[in-house]
Amino acid sequence: MTFTPVIPFSGLQGWTFLSRSIDSQRESLINSSEVKRETEAFRQKIGSIKSAEELVGDRGLLSVTLTAFGLETDIDNVFLIKKVLEDGTLSPDALANRFSDKRYLSLSKAFGFGDFDIPRTQLSDFSDEILSAYNTRRFEAAVGDQSQDLRLALSFDREILDIVEKGGSDTAKWLEVLGNAPLKSMVERSLFLPSSFGNLPIDKQVAILKEKSNSRFGVADFDSFRDSDVRGKLRVNFLLASQITEGGGVSSASTALSLLQGNATLRF
């Protein structure tokens, strides 16, 4: 049976409901017959996989793998995934290093086919590592089937903290946000930026994100996102905007949104 999460509302109301029931709903997903079958097969077989070719040759293993990294739509791009895995990550010319989307880099690092003589599939806890990510992403995808905005809200902490933990300047980290389409959409909408924002020169976009996130959420530098309260403020703004767009609770959400916006209209 396919798992379907219970989400009776959209926007901030939906997030409030989901937050209160998330542990039990995730448990229901993990215990569903379909997910149990997929995870048990992965656990039994992954230790025998020693090459990228072997991995992409098993569609079941590949499906779990790609889902764990948010790349499930690449299930039929077998040649691409094989190349990403075989190239590894150590060479600047490796395919994963040439993508602005860093999910491919994370995938290649996790398996180590192109980086080590013995791939990480041989580690005793490797299946636990991948299946933990798989269960998380699978739940997010199920939520996304009902509300893509709630899926974004669920993944926000992980995505933004991944960037926080990386080295580099604030500007480099904001550029990573702009290179991550879902995260970019969430940040832009939380700041009420117009649709024309993406047409601005990239340095102007970064400058505006820095300025607006500081004034709206107190993001003095990118490390400010370590603070759960800061992340929460951005998420609330985003979900209120989502709630209004989807027509849920328009009156109460509009009042709160007006206060959060400070009645400001952005013009470039």
Order of helices and strands: HHHHHHHHHHHHHH
Q: Helicity range of the residues? A: 55-70%
Global structural class: mainly alpha
Instruction: Domain count, please report it.
Output: 2
Taken as a percent bin, the fraction of beta residues is under 5%
Q: Pick out the low-confidence regions.
A: 248-268
Roughly what is the average pLDDT, rounded to an integer? 90
Account of the 3D structure:
This protein has 268 residues and is mainly alpha-helical. It has two domains: 11-137, AGR_C_984p-like (Orthogonal Bundle); 148-261. The termini are far apart. The protein has helices at 11-30, 33-45, 52-56, 59-68, 78-87, 95-98, 103-111, 126-144, 148-164, 170-179, 181-190, 202-217, 228-245, 250-261. The longest helix is centred in the first third of the chain and has 20 residues, at 11-30. The radius of gyration is 20 Å and the shape is globular.
In short:
This protein is mostly helical. It has 14 helices and no strands.
Secondary-structure map:
Layout: H1 11-30, H2 33-45, H3 52-56, H4 59-68, H5 78-87, H6 95-98, H7 103-111, H8 126-144, H9 148-164, H10 170-179, H11 181-190, H12 202-217, H13 228-245, H14 250-261
Helix pairs in contact: 1-13, 2-8, 4-8, 5-7, 8-9, 9-13, 10-12, 11-13, 13-14
